[in-house]
Amino acid sequence: MGKFKYGKTSLSRREGVIIYIILTSELALSNSTSLDWGVGPYGGKRSPEEQNKLFKDGRSKADGYNKKSYHQSGLALDLVPVINGKMTWENRKAFLVIRKLMFDAWTSLQVQGKIPKEYYLHWGGFWGAVDKNNDGIQQENELGWDSPHFEIRKYPQKIKFPRIWDL
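Above: the chain sequence. Below: its structure as tokens.
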């Protein structure tokens, strides 16, 4: 078991998020032995106004009104690495560690019957990612534009998982 757990701020930011992502994020963080992370600002359930602010700031492609985010219905969670006591969006390898631990936890929970098989975990690090040889993302600099983001959908994501190299 890992040594990390969510702090008060991250726990409050998860309020209103679907239990399947909560369970997955709990198991993933408890299995982490080398990397801590938390829920980023606006990383849980969002109001239309909060979503619109992120859109106007260029931090989301959903405006919260005409195009809604999965965050608005509690179907998404943003997880950000904590390195040297501070959240960082700059360490792309750390996002790959989170991605691996989240998908491992998701699979484990589905096998245990705690998450229905008709749901699929999606990762924003695949959105806009470069898959040069159609065999999975090869390097950290080929990740997509939303590495903190995880959401639940009713169909599988259509990109191959990144190869994991020494992290």
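Confidence is low (pLDDT under 50) at residues 163-167.
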